[in-house]
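Fold it.
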Amino acid sequence: MRQPIILCLASYFKGARLMRAAKAAGAHVVLITLEKLEHEPWPREAIDEVFLMPDIHKQPDITNAVAYLMRDRMIDRIVAMDEYDTVTAARLREYLRIPGLGETTGYHFRDKLAMRVEARDAGIPVPPFVAVLNYDAIRAFMADVPGPWLLKPRTEASAMGIKRIDHPDQLWSILEELGDKQSGYLMEAFVAGDVFHVDAITSKGKVQFAAASRYGRPPLEVYQGGGVFVTQTVPVSSKDGKALLKANRRLIKDFGMIRGATHAEFIRGAEDGVFYFLEVAARVGGAHIDLLVEHATGVNLWEEWARVELADIAGTDYKVSARKNDHAGLLVCLSRDARPDMSGYDAPEIAWRMDKKQHAGLIIASESAERMETLLAEYLQRFGHDFLAVAPPLESEAEMQERE
């Protein structure tokens, strides 16, 4: 059997564990990334070929580039490292007839309007919403659904660019300012409640591994108001854990996910206790969630994703690595100091410390849920005093790239 070729598409520096795992399993690894990311610490020992482009999403440039590579390479799979690469990878797969998510299904994991329509039609609970297209429909929505509402970009990641709307007059002035860009938005009812995420690995359309976690505060609050980002694992045997894993299995099936990693978010309504679907991405969760999951379960999502792709190429069954069921919590924040002194955080349960300029972060892992939660609460309070700095929220991917 010839050596399988995995093409990794990366508009941000991430995915090193996937590349190493693919290389260790015998794959030929090709990376296409941005010119400005050339000198990032990519795992060069695991990458056979690197190709640089000024813009890996620009058409027809990226299609022509990959088609050119295929003249003397049989590319078996294309893996999108980041959410912003999802649709580009899907278009390449369809055009080049490479197995995996195609463009229509890819939008289920990228476009927030497509997600909501797909979920609603499948009977999955979602907050009431309306596309920002027909003004009469928008007026009817605001008349029928009590405010406040959230105006959300359809294709930005996480909470980026979301605006809270408290009065109809506020909306119309924003839409006028957006002009032709307004069709790239949707509006939905604001639902108060706790926000959860489920990080999973799927093979042959079935979820093979999943871990549920709960954010300390909704990401929108942290993103727009500042604060410490916190998330902690939810026991799989708990009521919430069982409900979330069940909801995620249904979501993956109804959305047509074939294989790979997913990061889905749900909100438990404060008034009715219902888990409403918020969004899903065909990627590994960001903000070091992959490390949270790994320290709690022993399963690394990036490595499992590589194993899933290679098993599919080989036509063999995939089985997830053996998991454990510990409890873990993650704290991350911007720091006032370039290199914050975290020596005072010395509990033996600290499993990971962040090493990034202007940031403080750590992961606590323990066999005891009570011990983990006690430390998490203590350290959250101390982080706010010792480190916390606040920066203006970003509105778009372009602003993110400029700040970086």
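Confidence is low (pLDDT under 50) at residues 399-404.
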